[in-house]
Amino acid sequence: MKLSRLPKPVLPILIGWLLTAAAANTFAQVSPRERISIDPDWRFAKGDPAGTEGRLAYSAIKQWTMASGESLVVTPDAPHHARPAGNIGGDVSYTRPDFSDGSWRQLDLPHDWGIEGPFNPQASGSTAMLPFAGIGWYRKHLEIPAAEQGKQVYLDMDGAMSYASVWCNGQYAGGWGYGYSSFRVDLTPYIKYGGENVLAIRVENPPASSRWYPGGGIYRNVWLVKTNPVHVGQWGTYVTTPSVTADSASVILRTSVENDSKASAGLSVRMAIYPIDINDRRTGPAVANTAPTALSVDAGQTMTISLDTSIARPALWSTKAPNRYVAAVTVEQDGKVVDTYDTPFGVRSLAYDPNKGLLLNGQPTRIQGVCDHADLGALGTVANVRGLQRQLEMLQAMGGNAIRTSHNPPAPELLDLADKMGFLVMDEMFDSWSRQKTPNDYHLLFGDWSEKDARMLLRRDRNHPSVIFWSIGNEIGEADSAQGQATARRLTDICHEEDPTRAVTSARNSYNSGFNGYQNIMDAFGFNYLRAAANNFQMFAAFHEANPQKMVFSSESCSTISSRGVYAFPANLDVKGGGGTADGQMSSYDLFAPPWASPPDWEWKAEDICGVVAGEFVWTGFDYLGEPTRNGAGGGGRGGRGGGGANPARSSYFGIIDLAGFPKDRFYLYQSRWRPDLPMAHILPHWNWPDRVGQVTPVHVYTSGDSGELFLNGRSLGKKTKGQYEYRLRWDDVKYEPGELKVVTYKDGKEWATESVRTTGPAEKLLLTPDRATIAGDGSDLSFVTLTVADKDGRMVPATHNTIQFEISGPGEIVATDNGDPTDLNIFSSPQRKAFNGLALAIVRAKRGQSGQIVLTAKSEGLTTATATLTAK
After folding, report:
1. Cα–Cα distance between 281 and 217 in angstroms, integer?
2. Which of 154, 239, 764, 819 could be stapled to 225 by a disulfide with Cβ–Cβ 3.0 to 4.6 Å?
3. What is the pTM of this model?
């Protein structure tokens, strides 16, 4: 791992981001509305109370749940659902306000119960052998002051896995089916003003609900929103910039105002636009305003108004300069401000050119993206700002500029960070439509919920400048049928109704979809594994020839498999098989892929032959929990295999970066292509092979240069030059001898970058390196501390697997440990962890409301102890 090539976080910016994310009100202004985090201090228990099993399952209360989110059903002739009479579940003890929950476990949200383990080696490796399935109850006690009588009170849930049902003071208030959707429940009819209120939330994640690890519980943030009866609705603004030049940008903001009072309301609505910084603070006076516009809203109704203005000499949003503004809407009634609503946005233009690719502000912008699932490795699916931010920092260091949210709506915080850091996003809705991939997946909900879930995603996310695609589905089995194409048209029409400014796409693993009419439904076409589909490098070119007016890109590429720091010999086996080792690992020569997939070199050759492919989303940026696909001796396959057997695995091998966040060799192969102006070179494998003296040990070099000369202990092993459609330098006949392996690379005939690896001494000491030495004492901020097994000179010793004991003192706690080894079934909460090929990780959190010095210690028998000191503020 080359820390010098990773970003050095700027402490003030990071602390500001984290504090901002936890704040109740994002923008510094007095507002009559409150948005309060209620994540701390919940009570939790698993399972339903005795005697009520099945009574509150979704199938039993579907009619009550379906009554939620009815404002999202706007398609003509679509059925609507009214809540039946009665109070479903009101007689169940866990819903009642007088139930004593003092013996329940106390915890803070977000919470993923599945990540707590233990691993079950006999369970499906597809879902990581973790106990995500089951029923969980969460209860929260909170006070609503008497002075707030007459306020509207809402519960906003960013995500709960899944089939969530909410009771307030024993009364059923609402729910939602899809575990990845954000949703709102109106608590107003059930609130006791001036007294204690009790929320009870039931979630149920059935077995076989996912093809990967989905987590369990309320795994995203929860908010209490208080407004006046007249207020801007949930996701009630929509900002577009239809005309953008260097001199001026037009801004159109559509605002929906709700009147939940019992009388008609005469209102005045205005907007002001301010520039904001990375911490969401206004950085100057308003750059645009609108005059007050009169609006009359009848009782119980919602009205939408359009506010138009322009910004002179706008600061444009782009991947390299993610400038942003906030549109501040003010609603007045009888001369009094009754609501303010802030909408961050970016000024930028998008176009999808079939020959030039994505045009961002008129400039071709290559998509250098990755696909990622929602989990954060050892943290599980818990939405954590710092965990997400760390991932994006590493991707930027590699040259990445895009994320595909595979295969579901993301956490809102991911899009906030993408806006701030300059990432492009392919925002995906569904992994299945009406045809199942697993017995209890989304196909059970699609018919009833797909319009609500689609419009939820669109309204929630359409103001984010980072979003460039709406993806209506991933590898949908029925998409090529007449019924499937009709469904695709319906979903595409919904996208165009809610947001006509972005391209609608999907991720298709069917070559025929590009020629059978399905492609005409899509605004831009995304292929999964097109080059590998028929082992033909001309397939992108064939699509472009047949569809010359359609932009094409790789929505899922490569699926190369490897384990960090593992090298199998002989190195150059068939890429469609082999590469596995007897202990369940995959070789890191980056040549090996499952039958449907390919090495990066093959994908790039197909893209470059075509010449018009807009870019790619690699499967995957990070290893993730579940789907432990392996070849050869490693065994296993994508899906259920990986659990059971001699070498059960908890996580994937697809990542460019491993589950702990340590770069694999492939990181530098992508960096060599995605950052061509960065002088860099990377050598693999490591050079500690005492059992291979005199044996052929191939050496590969990843470099942004075009040629290189390799030296072994000062002797030249020859100069290599990349040929057409070659993306790495290879010396396949090197015979190992200990010492120094060095490469000098060149570009355009000039020396470009040098790199060397040396045979190390034996392991003698441990090193601890925090990614940040100061963290916020808010119970959420994290420091990711890398442990290195080193020789006397501080060089990492490869192929070391020492057992490490982590200890901590002060106002902090070890949240989890990891090492990036897919076969390590030690629970993540354990303070003991074996190093994997010289590295391990400890994730440290400061305790909420505390400050001071936190000391992390790492010990291992026979090695010098290491300590790291962190400061909690």
Report:
1. 33
2. 154
3. 0.95
